């Protein structure tokens, strides 16, 4: 997939541009890093995808091989990954990221329980600031992924993260579609182009596309795909669907 010049240059008020680094003294790029990815699958005891992030201390980041952006990269885009609490945002970013993902997971406290509805008893942590990861598509386009907090009380931070974003992937859980309405509504209010990815949980009931589109009140041109946030290929395909939609939208607008 080739990156368009519109994607690499758009959003000058905050969109991240391509930055080709050279190795600094004391830092060595990982040999063959173009073919390597760092994958983190997060499942609970029942096999469900949740938003449990990497619980390792941030100190071990110093031991992670440096992975610079390839010289072949022609463009970059800031992409949001949004959705309600527990829908799988942290999991998806950890699954696809070619660098060690940044996660701001915190244990759900008794004080927070008065404000946040725990989606499942097995979920004990939640994102309180953002998740961050990076993936290169086709060797030419880098996506910087920013996962947003799922709770309504973090909406101010959510809006800050949206600045400069070229698009968003909205994750949906069919077991509680209503919980996704706010996130999709925020994207529409901010005029951020988006696609929808239904995260297939083990106990989800399958629904046909027409029913899902109707329930979510999606416009006909909004992409809708099924994915499993724990699976690398499935999650990458969801992101490719979004990028294709963004390219089409920019092409039609030009």
From TrEMBL:
The keyword Amino-acid biosynthesis does not apply. Keywords: GTP-binding, Hydrolase, Nucleotide-binding, Receptor. InterPro entries: Gliding_Motility_GTPase, Gpn, P-loop_NTPase. CDD domains: Ras_like_GTPase (cd00882). Residues 32-45 have a biased composition (Basic and acidic residues). Residues 47-63 have a biased composition (Acidic residues). Residues 1-63 are annotated as: Disordered. Pfam families: ATP_bind_1. Gene3D superfamilies: P-loop containing nucleotide triphosphate hydrolases. The keyword GTP-binding applies. Belongs to the GPN-loop GTPase family. This is Signal recognition particle receptor subunit beta. It comes from Streptomyces iranensis.
């Amino acid at each position: 997939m080739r990156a368009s010049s519109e994607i690499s240059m758009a959003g000058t008020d905050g969109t991240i541009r391509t930055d080709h680094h050279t190795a600094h003294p004391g830092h060595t790029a990982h040999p063959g890093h173009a073919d390597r990815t760092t994958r983190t699958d997060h499942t609970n005891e029942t096999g469900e995808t949740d938003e449990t992030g990497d619980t390792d201390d941030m100190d071990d980041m110093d031991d992670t091989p440096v992975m610079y952006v390839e010289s072949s990269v022609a463009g970059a885009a800031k992409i949001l990954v949004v959705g309600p609490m527990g829908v799988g945002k942290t999991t998806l970013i950890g699954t696809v990221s070619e660098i060690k993902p940044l996660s701001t997971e915190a244990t759900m406290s008794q004080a927070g329980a008065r404000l946040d509805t725990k989606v499942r008893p097995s979920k004990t942590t939640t994102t309180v600031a953002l998740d961050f990861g990076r993936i290169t598509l086709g060797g030419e386009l880098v996506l910087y992924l920013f996962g947003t907090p799922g709770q309504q009380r973090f909406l101010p931070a959510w809006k800050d993260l949206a600045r400069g974003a070229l698009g968003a992937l909205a994750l949906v859980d069919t077991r509680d579609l209503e919980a996704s309405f706010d996130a999709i509504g925020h994207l529409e209010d901010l005029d951020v182009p988006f696609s929808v990815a239904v995260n297939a949980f083990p106990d989800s009931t399958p629904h046909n596309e027409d029913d899902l589109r109707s329930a979510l009140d999606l416009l006909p041109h909004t992409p809708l795909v099924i994915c499993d946030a724990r699976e690398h290929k499935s999650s990458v395909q969801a992101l490719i669907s979004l990028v294709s939609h963004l390219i089409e939208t920019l092409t039609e607008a030009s």
